[in-house]
C-alpha cells in the first residue's frame, strides 16, 4: 500500500483539490483507493458528495478504542472510498501531540487499511504541526502544492529545512506548482523552469481554472463532470507522474 499526503503549511494552495482529483484518478485506473480527510474543514469530504460524519469521536479512534476502519465508506465512484472528516477533528493535533510518538500512532492506524487498499491519500490541514510530522513520517510521498510567488518559496524553505533537521525523509517531498495563471509572467517562468530551490519538483503544474472551483458546487472530482477540461487533464498527468515516481523510487 502506498501512502501519499497532500501537505503545505500554507492554506488555500490546492491541497484538497489535488487530493480529491488524484484519488479519483487512481480509482479510475482501478486502484483501490482510500481518501482520508484529516482536516476539520472537511472540504474533501464535501467535494466527494459525502454526507458522512465520523461515527465515533476522534479521541476514541486515535486511541484505538474504536476501529477506524469502520469509518471508511464507499463513495459513488468505483474503487474510491472516503474516511470523512467533520469539525470534531479540530483537536486532532492535540491528540497526536499528547501521544508519545505521533508517527507510530498514525502508522498503527494506517496499517490495517493495507488489507483493502493499494493507495491511501491523506488530505492534511494547513499547518506545521505534530499531525503534519506524523503524516510526513508515514507517507511514501508528500505532495506540496505551491502557488508561484516569492513567499511560497519562503514557506517551502522553512518546511523542507524542518523536515531535513528532523530527518523525516526530506527526499519524499514533491512540490508542484498549483493555480498557475499563464497571464502572469512569474507564473509562466516558473511553469517552464521551476526554481532550483524546489528540489524534487514534479514537472506537471495545475492551471488556475474555474472548473476546479466548481468541484465544490458539483461535489465531484473533475473527471466526473469536466473530464476533458485542461485542469482535469493536468490532474491526470500529475497522477501519471506520481504513479511512475511511486513505482520507480524507494
Ligand atoms: N487550480 C485551481 N484553479 C482555481 N481555483 C482553485 C484551484 N485549486 C484550488 N482552487 C480553489 O481555491 C480554494 C482553495 O483550494 P483548496 O481547498 O484545494 O486548497 P487547500 O490548500 O486544501 O486549502 P486549505 O489550506 O484551506 O485546506 C478553493 O476554493 C478551490 O476551489
Ligand atoms: Mg484543504
TrEMBL record:
Pfam families: AAA_31 (PF13614)
InterPro entries assigned: AAA_dom, DNA_Partitioning_ATPase, P-loop_NTPase
Domain AAA: 1-160
Protein name as annotated: ParA family protein
Annotated source species: Spiribacter onubensis
